[in-house]
Write a structure and sequence with these properties.
single chain; about 450 residues; alpha+beta; Beta-Lactamase; Heat Shock Protein 90; 2 domains; six-stranded antiparallel beta sheet; five-stranded mixed beta sheet; 11 strands; about 55% helix
Length: about 450
């Protein structure tokens, strides 16, 4: 048998090869192709949501222009509808020019608009019910209402040239595009507002961070001023009064001293007066706290200078990646450091002190090491007794205060033997990691 004849119906889906049916098939295929092309244009238009409402609406009217080969395309929202959404209207010409009368950056004011386009724009803006309520289908003109949640809020109109009559499928395409474009337009506006709110929040966050840094600096200055005032008051009320009293006692003893010892007495009185002058100078210097803004490391350096004698060697070491600390944490650590330095100088007779501030991901640690004569076990006993309210341990209340400050922030204070030979005060406080505010530096250990 010979080869079978080709089955045309299997190729075109028709059971007859009459010319009329084939022509109908070709027309349907052509319309389907135009619809597919239109849907592709719609997709390209709607993905412009993130680019802002102006770009989105321009893409919509351009998609309609390309699909219909239109001379004019108009998209407009009625006055009072979607008041927070823009642009309120856009007009596309056959050559792709996009124009608007107002409210759209980069869109020129249209000139020589046909009366039909200008009248339709005015009708939509005024909310004329006869224009907005139902579609209009003419040989070379299409109009569909723009709806949102069942309410008519504007209109989409197009005018085709004489050689390009409107096809019935064009109305469907236009209605789909109008509906989806309106939703996308609202989403674009919401997206724009969300970005604006995010920018405002970022700005507010920046202001908050700056305020927090300023507050931290102010707290450091206040703490230093308090420490200076306390030391100045102690020098005035205790050391100064003792030196002054000694000088007065020597003056009173002048009549009872032999002529041979009078010269030595005069020298002692002179030395006591010189000591009082030096004390007054130190008190005045301590009272002048200054207004400089120090980092936490700079503040620790100042605390060492305040609490330690000039012949005591001191060092401040920072380990880890420094970051801005909450004000209460910073204040507590500096007070603990001040108390530890005072104890090392006044009670342990230390000749070397090292203060270490160590940052890690979840906590901040302060270590104060000295080479003095303190006994860690005895100090732990005294601190526990003071925390329990033991009256006999009251003069060691400073140890209890350090422990209480750390405990209030979820941390703790430990007392151990230092590698320097004396005592180590170790205070740790939990602080979740935040972004670094200072460059990471390796400090000498």
């Amino acid at each position: 048998m010979g080869a079978p004849e080709p089955d045309l119906s299997a190729l075109v889906g028709l059971h007859t090869v009459k010319g009329g049916h084939y022509a109908q098939y070709r027309g349907t295929a052509a319309r389907l192709g135009r619809v597919i092309t239109a849907l592709e244009g719609i997709s390209k238009a709607l993905v412009q949501t993130a680019s802002g409402p102006d770009v989105l609406v321009a893409a919509v009217v351009d998609a309609v222009r390309e699909h219909l080969g239109a001379r004019w395309v108009l998209f407009a929202l009625a006055d009072g509808a979607l008041e927070q959404t823009g642009p309120r209207h856009l007009i596309a010409e056959r050559d792709g020019t996009i124009s608007a009368f107002e409210g759209v950056a980069g869109a020129p004011v249209p000139t020589d608009l046909p009366d039909a386009v200008l009248n339709r724009l005015n009708d939509i803006l005024r909310g004329e019910a006869a224009v907005l309520a139902a579609p209009i289908v003419e040989d070379h003109h299409l109009h569909v209402p723009v709806e949102l949640d069942g309410e008519v809020v504007g209109g989409l109109s197009a005018w085709t040239p004489d050689g390009h009559p409107v096809d019935p499928t064009d109305l469907i395409v236009l209605r789909i595009l109008a509906g989806q474009a309106t939703v996308a337009l609202v989403n674009a506006e919401l997206f724009s507002q969300a970005n604006q709110r995010a920018a405002e929040l970022a700005e507010r966050n920046g202001e908050l961070e700056r305020t927090q840094r300023e507050l931290s600096a102010a707290q450091r200055r206040t703490l230093l001023s308090t420490e200076r005032s306390r030391i100045a008051r102690e020098l005035h009320d205790s050391v100064g009064q003792s030196v002054l009293s000694a000088g007065l006692q020597m003056e009173l003893a002048r009549g009872e001293v032999s002529p041979a010892g009078l010269e030595h007495l005069d020298k002692a009185v002179g030395l006591s007066r010189d000591a009082m002058k030096q004390l007054r100078g130190a008190i005045y210097t301590l009272g002048d706290s200054g207004a400089s803004s120090l980092s936490i490391r700079g503040t620790l350096d100042q605390l060492c200078a305040l609490h330690l004698p000039s012949d005591t060697r001191s060092a401040v070491v920072v380990r880890g990646r420094p970051r801005e600390l909450p004000g209460d944490v910073q204040h507590a650590l500096l007070r603990i450091a001040g108390e530890s330095l005072f104890n090392a100088s006044a009670h342990a007779g230390a000749t070397q002190v090292t203060v270490t501030l160590a940052y890690d991901a979840e906590r901040i640690a302060l270590y104060v090491d000295d080479d003095g004569s303190g006994d860690p076990e005895r100090l732990r006993t005294l601190m526990a007794a003071a925390l329990e309210g033991d009256f006999a341990a009251g003069h060691h209340r400073g140890l209890a205060n350090m422990s209480s400050r750390a405990a209030e922030l979820g941390g703790r204070v430990r007392i151990r033997r230092s590698r320097l030979g004396g005592v180590r005060i170790a205070a740790t406080v939990p602080v979740p990691a935040d972004r670094p505010t200072e460059p990471n530096r390796k400090e000498p250990s």
